[in-house]
User: Which sequence fits this backbone?
DNA sequence: TGTATTTTTGCAGTGACTGCAATAATGGTT
DNA sequence: AACCATTATTGCAGTCACTGCAAAAATACA
């Protein structure tokens, strides 16, 4: 188990976690203004300069953000011919989770920090923009292979359709995020996501 | 004409424009890394400290960003019982324009800067989040007075419906923004907005 | 053990941004 | 014109995020 990672990788993971834990903990305990790179680095037992080997900014450390990626497993139950909106929103949800390198227990802590310091949401949105780009590419690839969607409406291409799908599906994701961060309840975010999708359908059915 | 504004207000407007023009001009001519607060302030003939009386950050100066607001005139042709999605997206578009204090001719310059330095888009998104909040409140108020929308679907309230409407309408706005900034054509953004809305309708009709 | 690679670290520097208090400019009043 | 209240500008001193660079330490590998 501990041999799956080399000593180097294990230490890296430990330092990453120590920095993130110190940053988010200090933010909750003493306030975000007390979170300085120097203090966090000292708390984690590394030099301030090393901090930037792990995080591009102190906000990233507080939220434990990492570069998002589209994993193979996430695309497994992506069905172009099924409920496309649901597929896309679930894919976005899955990829969005990859920007949080921390464990699930840490999720509530982060949500609490974001709730107290909404400025941090902005930084998270930056990452979500990256998620949108990644998912758009992945969706476009799937659409291009589908007989139904390979040809887009006149004046548009497959990338446009993918982009629009991601933006619309992203609406329900953002709805779910705003709901769960302003009301830090126990209910899971994927529940909120499905509820948001349902509300969206209800409204749109009336409007189209 | 020049008496409509007091001397103080006129000078303020001039200094604002000088700072913004210097910042965006330097970004285009010499690159964004050459845009420093000191240089911009000197170029505009004010002290560096004064710069921060006008802009909260140097990015704001480059893009000429101002606090968004919902004007009376924007709500004039908002029709709750008509094409609600179109109404909301047009309202969002109108409010989004208020974050750009500069004149229309300056729009292309800013789009060019954003195109060359996509990091700036993030700062703009921060303002768009504010736009979303403002428009959500305005829309919720209108919905509450409407007989059709005053009662939301079970489990949701009017604010939820307004939020979702804004997010969905925002999707077509973001689509239009991405289109026009990656392809800085002459066609107006409101055209792109309507086209995006049309694409969204086409796609959603197939999916609902 | 020796060597190549990666990581950490210190250092010195740039530049954004802030609070504060003095000074100057402006608006309105007598 | 003279006077005062309000508001804007400025300099100063300081904090802190973030960077490039090169030396030193840790790790991997043969």
Assistant:
């Amino acid at each position: 188990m501990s041999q799956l990672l080399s000593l180097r990788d294990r230490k890296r993971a430990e330092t990453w976690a120590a920095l993130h834990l110190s940053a988010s903990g200090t933010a909750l305990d003493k306030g975000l203004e007390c979170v300085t790179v120097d203090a966090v680095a000292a708390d984690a037992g590394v030099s301030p300069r090393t901090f930037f080997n792990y995080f591009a900014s102190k906000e990233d450390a507080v939220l434990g953000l990492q570069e998002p990626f589209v994993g193979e497993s996430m695309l497994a139950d992506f069905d172009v011919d099924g409920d496309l909106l649901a597929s896309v929103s679930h894919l976005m949800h899955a990829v969005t989770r990859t920007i949080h390198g921390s464990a699930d227990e840490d999720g509530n802590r982060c949500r609490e920090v974001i709730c107290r310091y909404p400025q941090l949401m902005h930084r998270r949105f930056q990452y979500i923009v990256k998620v949108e780009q990644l998912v758009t590419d992945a969706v476009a690839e799937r659409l291009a292979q589908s007989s139904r969607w390979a040809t887009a409406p006149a004046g548009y291409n497959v990338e446009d359709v993918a982009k629009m799908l991601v933006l619309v599906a992203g609406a329900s994701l953002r709805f779910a995020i705003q709901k769960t961060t302003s009301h830090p309840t126990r209910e899971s975010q994927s529940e909120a996501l499905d509820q948001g999708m349902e509300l969206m359908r209800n409204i749109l059915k009336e409007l189209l």
Remarks:
- Residues 6-8, 11, 36-38, 49, 52, 56-58 of chain B lie near DNA strand C (CB under 10 Å from a C1').
- The longest helix of chain B spans residues 119-145.
- Residues 7-58 of chain B form a domain with the Arc Repressor Mutant, subunit A fold (CATH 1.10.10).
